[in-house]
């Protein structure tokens, strides 16, 4: 399951950040997940629980912000949000487009320790 290897990477990354910040426990891990990232959200949440066991991330909540797919339409010369990720067409004029501007994200955004959220600065 490829979500498990992603979860292990997240735990490593977040664990390093927590160690640099001098904290022993992380309460929330904020993640941005694009609709095109190829990651199944439920599987990632489950994998994160498995991968974080016995680490400073154990018991931390994975807060996932879903990022919609945004494309650039050459005809409208504008950005648009895709309504359906199966159809890469401008929602305004219907022109097919493959210029994806957003939606492939899989990014660790921030960690929350006991109280405050700390930006990672990565
Ligand atoms: Zn258009």
Structural class by helix and strand composition: alpha+beta
Uncertain parts? none
Oligomer: single chain
Strand content: 25-35%
Q: Percent helix among the residues?
A: 25-40%
Overall, the morphology is elongated
The overall pLDDT average reads 91
Fold topology:
Layout: H1 2-21, E1 28-34, H2 41-52, E2 61-67, E3 70-73, E4 78-81, E5 100-102, E6 106-112, E7 117-119
Parallel strand pairs: 1-2
Antiparallel strand pairs: 1-6, 3-4, 3-5, 6-7
The structure holds zinc ion (ZN).
Tell me about this structure:
The structure is a single chain. The chain is of the alpha+beta class and 122 residues long. The protein has one domain: hypothetical protein PF0899 fold. 26% of the residues lie in helices and 29% in strands. The protein has helices at residues 2-21, 41-52; strands at 28-34, 61-67, 70-73, 78-81, 100-102, 106-112, 117-119. The strands form two sheets. A four-stranded mixed beta sheet has the order 2-1-6-7, with helices on one face. Strands 4-3-5 form a three-stranded antiparallel beta sheet, with no helix packed on it. α1 (2-21) crosses α2. The longest helix has 20 residues, at 2-21. The radius of gyration is 17 Å and the shape is elongated. Zinc ion is lined by residues 73, 75-76, 90, 92-93, 95.
Brief synopsis:
The chain is 26% helix and 29% strand. The chain is α+β, with helices and mostly antiparallel strands and 122 residues long. The strands form two sheets. A four-stranded mixed β-sheet has the order 2-1-6-7, covered by helices on one side. Strands 4-3-5 form a three-stranded antiparallel β-sheet, with no helix packed on it.
